[in-house]
Design goal:
The protein is of the alpha+beta class and 431 residues long. It folds into two domains: 184 residues, no CATH class; 213 residues, no CATH class. 40% of the residues lie in helices and 19% in strands. Strands 6, 7, 10, 11, 12, 13, 14 and 15 form an eight-stranded mixed beta sheet that branches. Strands 2, 3, 5, 8, 9 and 16 form a six-stranded antiparallel beta sheet that branches. A hairpin with a 4-residue loop joins strand 12 and strand 13. Helix 1 runs parallel beside helix 7, helix 1 packs antiparallel against helix 8 and helix 5 runs parallel beside helix 7. The longest helix is centred in the C-terminal third of the chain and has 27 residues.
């Protein structure tokens, strides 16, 4: 039992050092889990428009500051959409109703391949509704659904997504947008929003590439004071397609508002004789099965990512849900089962546990590198730490020294239960 406790503590330390620590200290969005609430909104209104909008979107009709508006285009909605999606005569493909939206939805990439006027293949998308709060100008604010959604990218990889909301009055001529980047999370079977800045910059570049847009005067930044969620800094892109840039004002409509190398044979130059002996002893214990275990975990995890993207792009007969049903068992069952089978041939519990947990940590970071993720929310960091610990316990519980008296030992049982609870709780929305 004491050995199991030691292994567990080592796994927790590995999970924090290789997953939790780097994420918490380097990710700009890890602290933004619970959105700030507001009793009533300050709204953005242009001087030549009667209507106004609140600078955030929400999944419900409430004033939680979740998704910041980061692009506003002065112009007719039809013209804005045409400029973003134009490639001669554009024929949209039909959207399968099974597609969902990000957080917790998913999208479908629908644009025909070809050269688009802006250089980005924005395609029409559909998914979970996000509500915008608008005021027609009579002081009676209302919640409205998006006019349109556009996207560019891979369903099972990385993508940009835009929600567009048009002015409630026909003559006001403004379109507010919320743009973000996201990636598909195979542990949760949902898309996770990475940030808003990269998508905002992409839209800026798209409009600035159009010959009818003067880069100096028609594309500017305005402060909507909606910083905080994700990597939002409060500054939105303002694109003027009506010929005159109008400076917006704010109106209150409601009552409330590592160690360095210093010479010597690193790392040995900083170790005592006893430490060196321990390192050499560990190195002597490394065998082919350790390497096989590491390679298998990394290959299975990254293989699901790559296979999902390949199937999405080249196998039209499989729907997005069919691909998920085909590949998710590799994550949920394939990785722990393969870990158990390979680790059963290892002698020491600590060796098997450390190799498995480190390998999954490496696989997670390689996967984030593939999809270009550089920021994570706290709940995702916590979930990744738990699965790293769970897989390490499964591997440690499968080693020969752990199964001498009982094949279903405490480490194996605890690791299996933790793996099932974390993945099951994640799918059900509890983790």
């Amino acid at each position: 039992m004491r050995r199991s406790v030691v292994v567990g503590l080592v796994l927790v330390a590995i999970a924090f050092a290789f997953v939790g620590g780097p994420s918490l200290f380097t990710s700009p969005s890890t602290s933004d889990v619970l959105p700030e609430e507001d009793e009533g909104p300050d709204v953005v209104q242009f001087d030549d428009s009667e209507s106004a909008f609140w600078a955030y979107l929400n999944a419900a009709e409430s004033f939680e500051k979740r998704s910041p508006i980061n692009v506003v285009v002065r112009g007719e909605t039809d013209e804005v959409v045409r400029l973003l999606t134009e490639e001669g005569e554009t024929d949209w493909e039909e959207l399968d109703e099974e597609h969902e939206d990000a957080e917790p939805g998913t999208y479908s990439f629908l644009a025909d391949e070809g050269h688009h006027a802006t250089g980005t293949e924005w395609g029409e998308a559909a998914g979970t509704t996000r509500y915008a709060y608008v005021d027609p100008g009579d002081g009676e604010g209302q919640w409205t659904r998006e006019t349109l959604q556009l996207e560019d990218g891979d369903y099972y990889g990385h993508r940009m997504h835009i929600r567009l909301y048009e002015a409630p009055n026909e003559g006001d001529r403004w379109v507010a947008m919320q743009a973000h980047t996201e990636h598909f999370d195979w542990f949760t079977l949902r898309h996770r929003v990475d940030g808003v800045e990269a998508a905002q910059l992409a839209i800026e570049r798209d409009f600035m590439s159009l010959p009818q847009v003067d880069n100096q005067s028609d594309v500017t930044r305005i402060n909507l004071e909606n910083s905080g969620p994700s990597d939002a800094d409060g500054w939105a892109t303002l694109v003027d397609l009506v010929g005159t840039l109008v400076v917006p004002g704010l109106l209150g409509l409601a009552t409330g508002l590592g160690a360095s190398r210093r010479g010597g044979d690193w790392p040995y130059g900083h170790l005592t004789e006893a430490d060196r002996a321990r390192v050499e002893a560990v190195a002597d214990r490394i065998e082919a099965r350790h390497l096989l275990l590491a390679a298998t975990i990394i290959a299975l995890f990254l293989g699901v990512r790559v296979t999902g993207i390949v199937l999405e792009r080249h196998v039209d007969a499989l729907s997005m849900h069919a691909i998920a049903a085909l590949l998710y068992p590799v994550i949920a069952l394939g990785i722990p089962v393969a870990t158990y089978v390979i680790a059963a041939g290892l002698e020491r519990r600590i060796d098997a546990a450390v190799v498995a947990s480190l390998s999954l940590s490496v696989a997670v970071w390689l996967d984030y590198g593939i999809v270009g993720v550089d920021s994570l929310p706290v709940d995702v960091v916590g979930q990744r730490m738990l699965v790293v610990v769970a897989l390490g316990l499964i591997a440690g519980g499968a080693a020969r020294r752990a199964t001498r008296e009982n094949r279903f030992n405490d480490m194996l049982v605890l690791g299996s239960v933790l793996w099932i609870l974390v993945l099951g709780g994640t799918l059900l929305g509890y983790v």
